[in-house]
Every structure is written in C-alpha cells, then in structure tokens.
Amino acid sequence: xxxxxxxxxxxxxxxxxxxxxxxxxxxxxxxxxxxxxxxxxxxxxxxxxxxxxxxxxxxxxxxxxxxxxxxxxxxxxxxxxxxxxxxxxxxxxxxxxxxxxxxxxxxxxxxxxxxxxxxxxxxxxxxxxxxxxxxxxxxxxxxxxxxxxxxxxxxxxxxxxxxxxxxxxxxxxxxxxxxxxxxxxxxxxxxxxxxxxxxxxxxxxxxxxxxxxxxxxxxxxxxxxxxxxxxxxxxxxxxxxxxxxxxxxxxxxxxxxxxxxxxxxxxxxxxxxxxxxxxxxxxxxxxxxxxxxxxxxxxxxxxxxxxxxxxxxxxxxxxxxxxxxxxxxxxxxxxxxxxxxxxx
Length: 344
Known about the structure:
5-stranded mixed beta sheet, single chain, 344 residues, alpha+beta
C-alpha cells in the first residue's frame, strides 16, 4: 500500500527513517480530504437532482434537517482538524529534536553553494558525507540571504537564516547518493545551487574518517583548537575552568549563562556564534565588554570548528550527564561578549 501510494503521488524514494511516517500522514490526509470531497460532491449532485426546478413548481421547497446532523457535521470537521494538528505537531517535534549521539554537521549556505563542516571529519563544498543507520544533526546558517536546505529523498527542508542557527536531523536508511536543493529563491544562481549527500555504510564511513585523519584533514575540534590558538582566543579564555580575562570554555556548551542585563541564556551553537560575530549583544555578568567582533575575520569552517572545540572541552562530570554549571564570575561561563578574545 505504501509503495502504491508513493508511486501514485509521484513521490521520491523514502531514503530516511522519517520519510515513511511523514508520507503515511500525507496519505491519510490525501485520502480523507478526497473522501470528504467525494461525499460533498455526491450530496450536491443529489440535491441538484432531488430539488431541480420542475414545471408548475418555481419555488424550491424548504429543506429541514435535525440539529444533531448539523452538530455532527461541524464537530466531525473540528475533530479532524484537531487530529491533523496533533499528529503533525508530534511529528514536527520529532523531526526537530535529534536523538543523542547524533553526528553533527555544520551547514553554511552561501550564494550559491553549500559548505559542510563535519564534527568527525573534514570540511567540504557541495558534498556532505554521512553514515547510514546513524542520526545526523544538521546545524544550519547562511552568510548572505535566506536559503532552504532540502533533500527530497529524506523529506527534510529547513531554512538557513543569516545571523542565526537552525537545526534539523535525519537518519539515512542505507548507502546511496541523494540530491540537495535550495528551496528558497536566493538570487539569480538559485537553480545552480545543488549539492549531494553521500551515505556510506558504517564500515566505509569509518574507513573514510580514518583516511581523512591520516591526511590531517579530519577532527573538527582539533582544527578549532588551532584556530583558537592562531586568533589568540586562549590568551583570554582558559580550558581548565580557571578564571581568565574572559570566562572559561570548560563545560561552557549547554550551560546557563548570566548576562549583565539580568537575563539568562543557554550556551548553544547559536549563542556561541553570535558571541563571535556580535559580542556586545549579550555581555556576560562580571566581565567587561571588551571582546572585538570577528565578523568577516573568521570563515564559516573556522567558526564551526571553534564551536566544536568548545563543545569538546567538558569535564568528566559533564560527560557523564551532570547538570551544567551556571555561568557567573569565576565559574564556567561563555566565551562571549564578556571578554576579549571571546567565543571564537
């Protein structure tokens, strides 16, 4: 039945674990709406024939019906709407929240190309390499205008917005190659912005990673450490939890950060990146606002590598799942606008 409906609606292959459930909801809505249209059409045809104008009877007789019939009709439509809303919202939450231990890939859109920085492997342009049978979390941003990352075979589509990060995830079912498209008009080269997802088996993916590490191109966190050293970040931010000119990077990622305006924010990918590009937007409590902006200085792969390096600096307690510390003067906090050399 699934394959019949997929071919009938001319949908692409179901190459991810979320494609099947999403298509089944699509089938249910398609069949239900067509059934309603069929019933309404048949009722209209019946009324047309039953109450057609006849010789000697110009006025249409008044049609009466019981109140329960009207209540059933309206209640049924409302119940169907609520059912679609609940099912769709549950699927949406499932698509937006990746499982634990997902492979992280930073995706940067730019007129007119896709750049990928794999947390486990090297950076690439136009081709994203991922393993089959493992969840993959995409962390997307744009360097110019709004783009939309779309893989028809996976049934995922997520906007890449300038100045912020959005996330989506998928799990490819088996090895293969799948087309990436931009689903948001982004300029004259919009139609020339394709990409490709290369899905490898677990063994081939491990071999690919090993080969990249031999050539020195793998390990995004190690690359981020080199960027931090080259940019002078480690002169202001420690990695061992001690206080420096800026907050420490140890256990920073995922922690709750106190700001000078009294508000609090979670140190996620979006926050760390904003702190590099616009350090005065959120100043950490207890630190002077002396960090410079790195907008236009750091390339997209370097930014992704720095975020991955900060993620990797975690204590044993944090790795074991202990609650993240709250950033305050003298404790783990964000490498953000609160310090010179910030989140880079």
